[in-house]
Amino acid sequence: MPYPPKLESIISLFGGLSDPEKRETLISYAEQSCFQEPKPNEKFDLEDVRKDQECTDTVAVYLRVDEEGNAHFRVTLGPQVQTLTRSMSSILCKGLDGITPREVLEVPADFVPKVVGAELVRVRSQTVYYLLTRMKGVAKVWLQQQQRSGDPVTGDSSPE
Amino acid sequence: MSIDSHYAHPEALVTTVWVSEHLKDENLCLIESNEDILLYDMGHLPGAIHIDWQRDLQNQTIRDYIQPVDFAALCSRSGITPETTCVFYGDKSNWWSCYALWVFRLFGHEHVKIMDGGRDKWIAEGRPLSREVTQRAYSDYPVPPTRNDAEIRAFYDDALLQSRTALPLIDVRSPDEFKGLVTHMPEYPQEGVLRGGHIPGAHSVPWKQAVNKDSTFKSEAELRKIYQEDLGLSPDEKIIAYCRIGERSSHTWFVLNYLLGFQNVRNYDGSWTEWGNRVGAPIEKSL
């Protein structure tokens, strides 16, 4: 499956960078992670706040699906979460913004080494994949809720 | 807080205050070593260099450390000479700084210290961080004659012999890892180990017992109670410490060696990711 357009443009951006430039850009994304947190009075369709065994701190994923069935994510990260995971939260919130929950489920995880670079993807950095898994989990729950409620809106804007 | 003068080698620890007063010492090199690989880039102690435990200290092909010639090259490009005092600090209560210090000792670098409390304490005290990548003048570090594996490093066969002869093995992992209830560190992803449990005869003394809430090391009296009075270790015994990949056990190695003055402590860096995957390795589980 092709990447969502916004994610594709981020991947392309990283593709043209040298390793030091990649590092700087990842740092910049990490610093922007606070902007991906919920805004005051913002309403969500689903909130998933938990601390899993495999993550060093609490990660909260918030999903809002607009009238057109497009997903918008917000993420908050505990202070112990690694820098690379912070970078990934910004990249994913921006890169997945506006696609449907069903499309979120289909986003392949193989973009991570393209963005991060093989040198930085290590065993103890595997939580960079964790965030995408959490977002997919929230999208899946939302879709299941829609099916149970008999709502014809499944979040899929593309014909099957 | 000052450094406890009762430690066997109080000179091996320095406070954040001491470091802040010695930032410009030319014969001193501050070395940050972290688990979070981008943390140095987010800001570090002014003048500190970064040593990446995986990229800089390990062989990139086989599971082993760099060779003496690589160590000399690392030190030379970092502006370190054999006379330089290296002050290590980092995240995770100084796990990786103790690990880096231990590797420096493998190559016989004499002047090494840990900044007590690590990076978190420095930041908690509101001390300055810098984003400037430190450039130190190139030095000419001589190639060490050898890597001192025999002195402070243990291998699988050493740990097996230690187990069979009922000599002290210290398992510094979390209690659930020791018992075999989990095969990963709490709060970490699975690092690829097939069996849970511990080396037969090993004692469970999680590394965390050696530190205070602010990541500083406990006092000499507190540490002696844990390792000598309660566990019954004696300073001249042959001791091997292990964890999963050798970083938490480097922390305990530092405590036993430098703070309590134990003379024959080795770090089994193969640790549980080797033992728990090894065909035929004996394993003990406990409740």
Summarize the SSE layout with pairings.
The complex is a heterodimer of chains A (160) and B (287).
Chain A: H1 5-15, H2 19-31, E1 46-50, E2 59-65, E3 71-77, H3 83-95, H4 101-105, H5 112-116, H6 127-148
Antiparallel strand pairs in A: 1-2, 2-3
Chain B: E1 13-14, H1 16-21, E2 28-32, H2 39-42, E3 49-50, H3 68-77, E4 85-89, H4 95-106, E5 112-115, H5 118-124, H6 149-152, E6 153-154, H7 156-164, E7 169-171, H8 175-179, E8 203-204, H9 220-230, E9 239-242, H10 247-259, E10 265-268, H11 271-275
Parallel strand pairs in B: 1-5, 2-3, 2-4, 4-5, 6-10, 7-8, 7-9, 9-10
Helix pairs in contact in B: 4-10
Report on the architecture of this protein.
The complex is a heterodimer of chains A (160) and B (287). Chain A is of the alpha+beta class and 160 residues long. Chain A has one domain: Alpha-Beta Complex (Sufe protein. Chain: A), CATH 3.90.1010.10. Helix content of chain A is 43%, strand content 12%. In chain A, helix 1 (5-15) packs across helix 3 (83-95), helix 2 packs across helix 3 and helix 3 runs parallel beside helix 6 (127-148). The longest helix of chain A is centred in the C-terminal third of the chain and has 22 residues, at 127-148. Chain B is α/β, with parallel strands linked by helices and 287 residues long. In chain B, strand 9 (239-242), helix 10 and strand 10 (265-268) form a beta-alpha-beta unit. The N and C termini of chain B lie far apart (39 Å). In chain B, 43% of the residues are buried.
